[in-house]
Design a protein that fits this description.
The chain has about 500 residues and is of the alpha/beta class. It is about 35% helix and about 15% strand. It has three domains: about 1-85, Orthogonal Bundle (Arc Repressor Mutant, subunit A), CATH 1.10.10.10; about 125-135 and about 385-490, Alpha-Beta Complex (Aspartate Aminotransferase, domain 1), CATH 3.90.1150.10; about 160-380, 3-Layer(aba) Sandwich (Aspartate Aminotransferase, domain 2), CATH 3.40.640. The protein has helices spanning about 20-35, 50-55, 60-70, 145-155, 175-185, 200-215, 230-235, 255-260, 280-295, 355-365, 370-380, 385-410, 435-445, 475-490, and strands spanning about 1-5, 10, 75-80, 80-85, 195-200, 220-225, 240-245, 250, 265-270, 300, 325-330, 345, 415, 425-430, 450, 465-470. The strands form four sheets. The protein has an eight-stranded mixed β-sheet with strand order 5-12-11-10-9-6-7-8, with helices on both faces. Strands 13-14-16-15 form a four-stranded antiparallel β-sheet, covered by helices on one side. Helix 12 (about 385-410) packs parallel to helix 14 (about 475-490).
Length: about 500
């Protein structure tokens, strides 16, 4: 700051060649001086005419800057007296009035919620890039974008005014009808469009479900190993997580009941368990439904990539076996279409629909309507079914290339798990190998393998790697496996 001949303070000279407009430089100069307490409440400011003359600029940018500062409450104008720093701003240097709280230069504690997700000390190296073997990466380059672009352009050129206004918190009715029809045919669900809620993906589905079903301290069974994103969403709701082991038959219901019979809910991926890839047996499914019914508990079924099964037809969803309205079903289009679309869905028991709709409306009102309208036509015209068939064949080819390369390079040293479905599989590492160290070294060579131990909520009982093959072409997989072999044996 410089002092004018009249004794009032002026901003530093402006830089005519700076990228910011002159009025913005003046505005920010005064605002920073006030926030840094170099200008104090009640101090008089130069007139706009005097300031413009001192800076050697037009009066217009000065007037614009002063108007903005007056509008935001940093300045105040007194008729016949001039412009001053607003007296309503707090002044740390001034003594506090009797009985008023005294301001302190020492900042108070920066509190966050106890249920906030912890921030890792440093980013996980295996999440630093895309390609082999990044988990959850679909083959986005095989999506029919020219067709999609034509559909989007049709709606954008001649938008229906109804699509541009506020909508049902459950979602666009034609899209929900298309989803319900698809789920009844492909997944044997018992549902209609009135039970479908459109969400931005499985994470939002879990967050809404937790808000409706759980209280702080509610016990929830989770698969161990399992999906870390589900643990985060449930933990943010204040849930008490109860890890339940997964074996070749899926979640061990008997162990879950022994560990916590009073659980309010259970989170499961029965059709293709994440990450091990096992399918929950029929006996376990019925046992889980019986337990939920007798205990008044809820089952949260995440059916995240059920479209891709290579050795048999897709497994019937757990929700289709439910006769008591205990299952909340979660599906997503992220793996089937492309993740940035951010479209998923919930299938809600009829009596819970009003509660779910109220929570949704309180969080973000309703989902974006235009993408749903495009998707409704994409599904109704048969494009969705054709795309799924093409991708199933593509992923089968990539899965086979990965399994064959592992067999050739490791000669039985690694056990392959969960290769029957989905777009990832698991390999167990030889004794003495630590999966996090292997994954970190692999990331430096452009191989994005996730350590299996990261999927455990309790103590990790296995060391292994989760290998996604959805985004890796069959032609690049053998070389990536050779790099991985050198790392594992190095």
């Amino acid at each position: 700051m410089t002092r004018t001949a009249s004794g009032v303070l002026a901003v530093p000279p402006v830089a005519r060649r700076a990228g910011a407009p002159l009025y913005r430089q003046i505005y920010e100069g005064y605002r920073e001086a006030i926030l840094e307490r170099r200008l104090r409440p009640g101090q008089r400011l130069p007139s706009t005419r005097a300031l413009a003359a001192e800076l050697g600029i037009s009066r217009i940018p000065v007037l614009n800057a002063f108007e903005q500062l007056l509008a935001e409450g940093y300045f105040e104008s007194r008729v016949g007296a001039g412009t001053f720093v607003a007296r309503s701003l707090p002044d740390r240097a001034a003594p506090a009035a009797p009985g008023a709280p005294r301001a302190s230069d020492r900042p108070g504690p920066r509190r966050v919620a106890r249920t906030a997700v912890p921030v890792p000390a440093r980013p996980a190296p295996w999440l630093g890039g895309w390609g082999p073997f990044r988990v959850s990466e679909p083959a986005v380059d095989h999506f029919p974008f020219p067709l999609w672009a034509r559909l989007v352009a049709r709606y954008a050129r001649a938008p229906n005014p109804d699509l541009l206004n506020y909508h049902d918190p459950m979602g666009h009715r034609p899209f929900r009808e298309a989803v319900a029809e698809y789920l009844r045919a492909a997944r044997a669900l018992r549902c209609d469009a009135g039970q479908i809620m459109v969400v931005s993906g499985s994470q939002q589905a879990l967050a809404i479900t937790a808000r409706v079903l759980l209280d702080p301290g509610s016990a929830v069974w989770i698969e161990d190993p399992g999906y870390g994103g589900a643990r985060d969403a449930l933990r943010m709701a204040g849930a008490d997580l109860v890890p339940v082991p997964v074996d070749d038959g899926g979640l061990d219901v008997g162990t879950g009941a022994a560990r916590c019979a009073r659980a309010r809910a259970v989170y499961v991926t029965p059709s293709h368990q994440y990450p091990l890839g096992v399918t929950m047996t029929a006996s376990r499914r019925l046992q889980l439904l019986d337990w939920a019914r007798s205990r008044g508990a809820w089952i949260i079924e995440d059916d995240y990539d059920s479209e891709y099964r290579y050795e048999s037809q897709p497994i019937t969803a757990l929700q289709g076996l439910d006769r008591d309205g205990r299952v909340i079903y979660i599906g997503t289009l992220s793996k089937v279409l492309f993740p940035a679309l951010r479209i998923g869905y919930l299938v809600i028991p009829p009596d819970l629909v009003p509660r779910f709709a109220a929570v949704r409306e309180a969080t973000d009102l309703f989902p974006p309507t235009l993408p749903q309208a495009v998707l409704a036509e994409f599904i109704g015209a048969g494009h969705f079914a054709r795309h799924v068939r093409r991708m199933r064949a593509l992923y089968r080819e990539r899965r086979s290339a990965l399994v064959d390369a592992i067999a050739q390079e490791f000669r039985g040293a690694l056990r392959v798990l969960g290769a029957e479905a989905g777009i990832h599989l698991v390999v167990t590492l030889p004794r003495g190998c630590r999966d996090r160290a292997v994954a970190a070294r692999a990331a430096h060579e452009g191989v994005w393998a996730m350590p299996l131990s990261r999927c455990y909520a309790g103590g990790a009982s296995r060391q292994g790697l989760v290998l996604g093959y959805g985004g890796a072409g069959a032609d690049v997989i053998p070389a990536a496996v050779r790099r991985l072999r050198r790392i594992v044996r190095g």
